[in-house]
Design goal:
three-stranded antiparallel beta sheet; binds magnesium ion; alpha+beta; single chain; 11 strands; binds 2-acetamido-2-deoxy-1-O-phosphono-alpha-D-glucopyranose; 44% helix; 14% strand; binds adenosine-5'-diphosphate; 365 residues
C-alpha cells in the first residue's frame, strides 16, 4: 500500500495538501504530510514500519504507547510541553495506535514536531553537549519505569557476543561470495573478539544495572529546537527496552563524535573528535545526575568503543549476508559504513586513556 492510501486511515486534522518521503533513517519508511487547518499548515509524520526488522509490531507499538504516555506525564509535571518534548501518536479512525494494511504492512503516525533541526553531524560542541544532557535526562527519567512492562522488541539487540556469533555465521555461509574481498575487515573484527563479553558479563553478574534504555541514540534521533538550539525531544523509540546505559552513551558517541558521515568513503576524513567527546560526556553526566553508578562511569569510554565496534560488525555482517537489514543506496554501502566504524574504533583505542580521563573529570558518581 502507498502512503497516500494509508494516510486515510488516521485521524489527522484538516485537509490533505501534500506529502512525501522524509528523513534519513535506515529502518522505517518515513513520510511527512502537510494538512491545511483553517488556512494554517499542520504537518504529521507517517511511517511504514519495517516488519523484517521488527517481528512483533503490536508489541513494539505497545511499548511506544506506554513509554510516551509515561514521558508525557513527567513532562507535564515539570511544566513542559508534551507535544514538543516527546512523541505523540495520532490514532487511526477506530482508535488504534497503528494500522495493519491488507497487504501485510504496518503504519503509524505522529504529530510533527515543528521548528526543529535534525543533525547528521555534530556541528558545534555546545549543541552536542546539550544532546548529551538530553539523553542523560531521558535515561534518568525512565529510571522509575517498570521494565517488566516492556517487551523485548529485538531480542539480544545489543548483545555483542550474539552479534559476533552472527558475524561468524555470515562469514562461514558467505552467501554472496564477498568474504574474500573483505579479509582485512574480518581480521579486524576477529582481533577484537575479547571486547564482546565485557558489558554482557557485567550485566549478567549484576555489577552494572539493567535499565530501560533507548538503544538507538544517534544524533538524528534527537530533535533540536531551531531557535534555542536546545535538544528538546528524543525520537525513534522503536528499540526502547531493557538494556545498559553504556549502549545509549556509546551509540551516541559513535555517531556524534565522528568528523564525517557514517558512510563517508574517504577514510582520511573520518576521525574521532575528542573535543566533542568531552562535550558530550560533560552534558550526559550532568543530565543523568546521580542515577549513574561508579562502575558505569568507569566504563563509558570502553562502552563507546564497544558500540562502534558492534555497529561496524553489524554493517559488515549485513554486507556479507547481501544487504538484507539496513537500507542501502549502492552495492558496497554497508561495507563503506563498516569501514568508517572500524576507523573510529582504531582512533578511540589510541586515545582511550584520555577518554577515561574525561569521564573522571566530569564524574558525579
Ligand atoms: P528510522 O527508524 O528509520 O530511523 P525515525 O523514527 O528516526 O525512523 O524517523 C526518521 C526521521 O524522521 C528522523 O530522523 C527525523 O528527521 C524525522 N522525524 C521522525 N519523527 C518526527 C517527528 N515527530 N517530528 C519531526 N520529525 C520527525
Ligand atoms: C539503525 O533506525 P535508525 O536509522 O535510527 C539501527 C541502529 C544502528 C543505526 C546505524 C532498529 O538506526 O541500531 O545503530 O541504524 N536501528 C535498528 O546507523 O536496527
Ligand atoms: Mg532514526
Amino acid at each position: 500500500m502507498e502512503f497516500e492510501q494509508a494516510k486515510e486511515k488516521f485521524a489527522f486534522t484538516g485537509e490533505y495538501v501534500e506529502g512525501g518521503p522524509y528523513g534519513d533513517g535506515h529502518i522505517n519508511d518515513t513520510f511527512a504530510l502537510v494538512y491545511n487547518v483553517g488556512g494554517s499548515r499542520r504537518r504529521y509524520i507517517l511511517q511504514r514500519m519495517n516488519k523484517h526488522v521488527f517481528p512483533d509490531i503490536p508489541m513494539l507499538m505497545h511499548n511506544i504507547g506506554i513509554v510516551t504516555e509515561y514521558l508525557a506525564e513527567q513532562i507535564k509535571k515539570r511544566g513542559g510541553d508534551p507535544l514538543r518534548e516527546t512523541l505523540t501518536l495520532v490514532r487511526t479512525h477506530d482508535g488504534k495506535s497503528f494500522y495493519a494494511s491488507p497487504d501485510g504492512e504496518f503504519w503509524r503516525a505522529f504529530v510533527f514536531i515543528e521548528n526543529t533541526i535534525v543533525y547528521q553531524l555534530a556541528e558545534s560542541a555546545d549543541v552536542f553537549e546539550d544532546t548529551g544532557r538530553a539523553f542523560g535526562v531521558f535515561i534518568a527519567g525512565l529510571d522509575g519505569f517498570d521494565a517488566s512492562r516492556l517487551g523485548e522488541v529485538i531480542p539480544k539487540f545489543h548483545n555483542t557476543e550474539d552479534r559476533y556469533r552472527k558475524f561468524e555465521a555470515a562469514v562461514a555461509a558467505d552467501k554472496k561470495g564477498r568474504a574474500a574481498s573483505v579479509a582485512d575487515e574480518i581480521a579486524f573484527v576477529r582481533a577484537r573478539k575479547d571486547y564482546c563479553d565485557k558489558v554482557t558479563s557485567c550485566l549478567a553478574d549484576g555489577s552494572i544495572p539493567l535499565r530501560v534504555t533507548h538503544n538507538d541514540t544517534k544524533l538524528n534521533n534527537i530533535l533540536v529546537d531551531a531557535d534555542t538550539k536546545k535538544a528538546i525531544c528524543v525520537i525513534d523509540l522503536d528499540t526502547i527496552m531493557p538494556g545498559s546505559l553504556l549502549y545509549d552513551f556509546g551509540d551516541a558517541v559513535r555517531f556524534g563524535c565522528s568528523t564525517a558521515m557514517e558512510d563517508e568513503q574517504d577514510l582520511s576524513k573520518v576521525n574521532f573528535d575528542i573535543g566533542l567527546y568531552e562535550a558530550f560526556t560533560k552534558g550526559f553526566l550532568y543530565g543523568i545526575g546521580d542515577r549513574i553508578t561508579p562502575k558505569e562511569t568507569d566504563m563509558l569510554a570502553f562502552g563507546s568503543i564497544l558500540m562502534t565496534f558492534e555497529c561496524g560488525m553489524r554493517f559488515l555482517t549485513d554486507y556479507l549476508e547481501g544487504d538484507v537489514y539496513f537500507k542501502t543506496k549502492y552495492d558496497t554501502h554497508n561495507l563503506v559504513r563498516s569501514r568508517t566504524q572500524f576507523k573510529l574504533v582504531s582512533c578511540m583505542e589510541n586515545v582511550l586513556d584520555e577518554m577515561n580521563g574525561i569521564a573522571a573529570r566530569y564524574r558525579r558518581a
